[in-house]
Specification:
Number of helices: 2
CATH topology: Porin
Helix content: under 10%
Strand content: over 45%
CATH architecture: Beta Barrel
Largest sheet: 14 strands, antiparallel, barrel
């Protein structure tokens, strides 16, 4: 399989929502649909929210190439009725040279894309193969601003999640599976006359834990409408519940990173080497930093 295929996502509507969320997941090659065990589940798989027991927040910032910045923030709050979450995703690029119809320079402009997510996840009351499945959904509002033009659209994502437990067969206990369906209701963005519709995207994620749950391996398979299948691979090893080493790859990046956890605080770092496969222009490296804080308990 050619892991270098289907890289041209930059031209499709809503491509900024495929950049990822949380430095932990980014260090693992964006393999998180089958993990989704923190507040970034609002982005990766809202069904994962149903398993959270503590309120928590996660923030991320990445400085990309050519005056482009990417930011993400999410929060989750468990209740007796399920877990509610919210998130903001933003991609901002500046420094574009503007020209009029006569090709005269008219100053600089920028592009700003933002999505706001309102999510909900809940565990179902029955067992499947010994584990209780969860379901979830995310309502999203997306906006795009190009120079003086702007537009807004609305959409819906949904997901399911299952994780083995002590009632599962021994071989299934370390396994978790997630399915995220993005743009089940597709946002539509109209700038001037043209309307862009976000494509339907399905991601199946599987994660398996070894060595007393210290080693986590994961794979995500993504199929987006109009694009070929994409494969994401990732792994994480945790030392003494404090230090985590991570690595991963997908069709455009080789990734690595580490995380440090102390009580309810987690500081994460992810490094990505872009366009790692031959035949495409090298975009160099980027650095992503994230922080997660949990409230209540230890």
């Amino acid at each position: 399989m050619d892991l270098g295929f289907a890289r041209e996502d930059g031209g499709r509507p809503g491509a900024f929502l495929s950049y990822g969320a949380g430095a932990r997941s980014l260090a693992m090659g964006k393999t998180y649909v089958g993990i989704a065990d923190d507040s970034t589940a609002t982005y990766w798989n809202p069904a994962g929210l149903g398993r959270l027991k503590q309120p928590e927040i996660t923030v991320l910032h990445a400085s990309l190439y050519e005056k482009t910045g990417y930011s993400f923030a999410s929060a989750a709050y468990p209740t007796v009725y399920g877990v509610f979450g919210a998130a903001i995703v933003n991609l901002n690029s500046t420094g574009f040279q503007l020209r009029d119809e006569y090709n005269y320079e008219t100053g600089e402009g920028g592009v700003n894309e933002t999505a706001a997510l309102i999510s909900y996840g809940v565990k179902l009351p029955y067992l499947i193969a010994g584990g209780r499945p969860s379901v979830g959904t995310s309502l999203k509002v997306v906006s795009q601003n190009i120079d003086t033009k702007s537009a807004t659209g609305y959409g819906l994502d949904t997901g399911v999640y299952w994780k083995g437990n002590g009632k599962s067969l021994p071989i299934l206990q370390p396994l978790s599976i997630g399915l995220n369906i993005q743009n089940l209701v597709a946002p539509r963005i109209t700038l001037i006359d043209d309307t862009d519709k976000y494509p339907l995207a399905l991601t199946l994620g599987l994660a398996y834990r070894f060595l007393n749950n210290n080693l986590l391996t994961a794979i995500d398979l993504n199929k987006t409408q109009g694009r070929q299948l994409k494969v994401h691979l990732g792994s994480e090893y945790v030392f003494d519940r404090m230090l985590a080493l991570r690595a991963g790859l997908d069709e455009t990046e080789l990734t690595a990173g580490l995380g440090f956890t102390w009580q309810n605080y987690s500081l994460d770092y992810a490094f990505a080497y872009h366009d790692a496969w031959a035949g495409h222009e090298d975009l160099g490296a980027s650095h992503r930093f994230g922080l997660t804080v949990k409230f209540g308990g230890k």
